[in-house]
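ingest -> validate -> predict -> emit
validate: passed (alphabet ok, no gaps, 212 aa)
predict: started
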Amino acid sequence: MARIVIIGGHGKIALQLERLLADRGNEVDAIIRNPDHAGDVTAAGARPVVADIERLDVDDLAEILHGHDAVVWSAGAGGGDPARTYAVDRDAAIRSMAAAESAGVMRYVMVSYFGSPDHTVPEGNSFRAYAEAKAAADEHLAGTALDWTILGPSTLTDGEGTGAIDVGPPSSGTVDRADVAAVAAEAVHRDSTVRRTIRFNGGGTPIAEALG
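emit:
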């Protein structure tokens, strides 16, 4: 099938995505920072690659990405520290895009959020750093030569997933992380999602049909 690398491989969405991709016969590498998480990644059917994306430069990242067919960005600083949020969600993400181009890995799927890009969050708001970091990364990705897809799920929940979503709703609702993983697993192989920003809630349309 394909060789796919997931950046941020121990996240709740990423672990489910790894299992879905592996079950479909793909070879999946998962970049993680903490070696203690390797067992969880292996159990999900992926190969753990221990590397700190916050510290790697473009050449180092390109070496890791080389030979893959697609990159999925599912990493994040987790909020809290604005400096680290910018370092991971903006700067490391943008370096990974340059690395993908350098390594010749043109398919790139970004797991973002429903509201991005949003430059309206005021100074002093705890959400501002995340909103600005994601906006910068998404806007940069859309300006690259990569075959990109930006996924914009609404508020994340921990249900089992329904296998159905609502694409292009007028406002953000909720969606299970399991369905976000399923959307990413479907989108990464679909030419119809290239150069599209896809915002979605949980809904009533089967994922394969909803993506077109």
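Helices lie at 12-23, 38-43, 58-65, 82-103, 128-142, 177-187, 207-211.
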